[in-house]
Amino acid sequence: MEKNDKKTSNMANSSNGELKPKGSYVAVNGLNMYCEIYGEGKPLILIHGGGSTIQTSFGAVIPQLAEHRQIIAVELQAHGRTGDRNADLSFEQDADDVAMLVEKLKINKADFFGFSNGATTTLQIAIRHPHIVDRIILGSPLAKRNGVPAQFWDFMNQAKIENMPAQLKEAYKKVSPDANGLQIMHDRDVKRMVNFKDIPDEKIKSIQAPTLIIIGDKDVITPEHALEMHRMISNSQLAIIPGAHGEYIGEITTLKPNYKQTDFVVPMIEKFLDQE
What number is the average pLDDT over the span 40-48? Predict the structure, then answer.
């Protein structure tokens, strides 16, 4: 399996110049996990948000990030093209799945960029698997229940698939062969958030990896929470960018015409990753 996976490291181009990845499935902890690999260079692992696919979270920034690095974008349990293991989701299990994927791809150490739920998974990777982590970028991470307004939890307690953003539903149906998978993904994501428990301070403080925390000034994640995390992670930087949840990377539900946020955010990310 690994030999086939390694072949995905060279990026293909379509006839119109659009970046086309090499897609691959890797056996990971009972899952057939889907990943896409773009470009060459030091690996940067991208971990999408809840209810999302690779493209809905990162489609706007992958072309720029792949100019100087090998981008390995994953889809987690029950999301996108990755199947379901008939078990509840947890951020800890997602972290273990990504860590095994990295091992299967024979990568000793990588940088990680997680968005939203993917940022919480990235926190768990840094806590549970520090030996594979160089630098981490946390886009709108949640570590404590008080990191979002109280009404967020009211919404989660009453969440229905009818209220799921249409762009995310369409994106899932576009890539997944499982007609029933959308409801499964929705219900698993909701249950995980309803049952979310604070990550203990001592575990957050144990993170030694250089860390960049990014949120929007109109994010679901509060500035106070981002600042609290920044203070707990000793080797961290904090950036608060104008815009909503994920708008700073052009996440699909916030993407606007003539989007230019990445003109600033991607160079900032690259500068952080390239620091000695």
Answer: 97
Alpha carbon distance 143, 157 (integer Å): 19
Distance in angstroms between the alpha carbons of the first and the last residue of the chain: 34
Q: Say which residue, 243 or 3, is predicted with more confidence.
A: 243
Q: Roughly what angle, to the nearest 10 degrees, separates helices 150-157 and 181-194?
A: 140
DSSP H or E segment with residue 74 = strand 70-75
Q: What is the pLDDT of residue 264?
A: 77
Kindly state the DSSP code that residue 145 receives in the 8-state scheme: G
Burial bucket for residue 51 (CB in 10 Å: 0-12, 13-18, 19+): buried
For the chain, list the domains and their CATH numbers. 2-273 (3.40.50.1820)
pLDDT tens for each residue of 184-207? 999 999 999 999 999 999 999 999
DSSP 61: T
Separation of alpha carbons 253 and 56, rounded Å:
8
Q: CA nearest 29: which of 99, 88, 122, 81?
A: 99
